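[retry 2/3] Permease: previous attempt timed out, resubmitting with same input.
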Amino acid sequence: MVVEFIKEAAFFFNEMAIYLVFGFFVAGLLHVFFPEGSVLRHLGKNDLKSTLKSSLFGIPLPLCSCGVIPVAASLRKKGASKGATLSFLISTPQIGADSFLITYSLIGWVFALFRIVASFITALFAGLIVNLFSGSNGERENNEVSSRESSSFRDRLKTLFSYVQFELLGSIAGYLVIGIIVAGAIAIIIPQDFFERYLGNQFLSMVVILLVSIPMYICATASTPIAASLLLKGLSPGAALVFLLAGPATNAVTISTVTKILGKKSTIIYLGAISLVSITLGHILNIVALDKNVTIMHAHAHELLPEWVRLTGSIILFIMLAGHYMTALKSKLQAQKRRADFNEKRGLTVTGMNCTHCSNTVKKAVESVPGTSEVEVDLDLNKVFFKIETDDLLVVKNVIEEKGYQVSS
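[retry 2/3] Permease: success.
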């Protein structure tokens, strides 16, 4: 059983590795050519066009469901309508360049394209409904340009490797490994007829998957091998689509953030829109796949690439993951040594930090406050430590909360 599990996990890893590596490269280029400042300038407006652009432009951007939070908070603060902000919060984490490519590699191009269209429709529908019921009152403010916004093209190009390795991979590495492990476990533990036996009703299966997915924190990339494994076990394509739409777009932290920056009414619309649209589109996909006999899952996309290319991708991804965990271990050991010095610093608890992207965002926010120095973020403790020349921590709390996180002493 252990040997079979290793084989299945290795299969998923090898099938998606080269596509994921290429996806990281594309995501890095997007980071270079479309920095956060560019996103804010194009999407931070109070009109219908901004909602449409938020739904469309959020799709390829390399931001996970926690990394999108500070960008969405900045969008709202810079004057974007509630609809545009919500559309961005939904479409961005649901799919990106990397998750699209591994969807193609593990499931097939039909499902991959349907996933893109479904993400766009879900985001646009939610944004339009929010604007319809809450109005489009913008709250544009003249804010300081963030360091990433003001950085030059050359500076961003220099940080391409570090962005991909430490910020992008760092934000999904743990969830990616978990996703591969879960996919391998599903392949050997769940019986072949499990879903037909216990969730044979297509609508019921979509509802169950939806209820499980909403509070779950999982990124678009990590959710893909799990969905592929479930499909191989007989889960309907519609239910798999619901999982891939609701899982990355919703989690406890994102729901809390939406409530804070957009209000309770927008949160209800946000959850309702994702639920309604994902189940509707899942039902349509089931009709296409099951009633019209259109083949949705092509598990042979790998045959288009030579074996040595896929093996090269696996080696590169393995090296990247090994480098990530070695760096993380080194940072953890260094953090343990520095904790003795934290007694001399002020500390704040930050709720909502889940990855290195979050920690970098919080660190930069605190460093932007005049009088702060020696800023350290401890993800294990969910705390940020720093020295400050005054006793007033309100300014520090405010700059962190503006990024979409909750702060307590």
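[retry 2/3] Permease: Residues 136-150 have pLDDT under 50 and may be disordered.
[retry 2/3] clearing retry counter.
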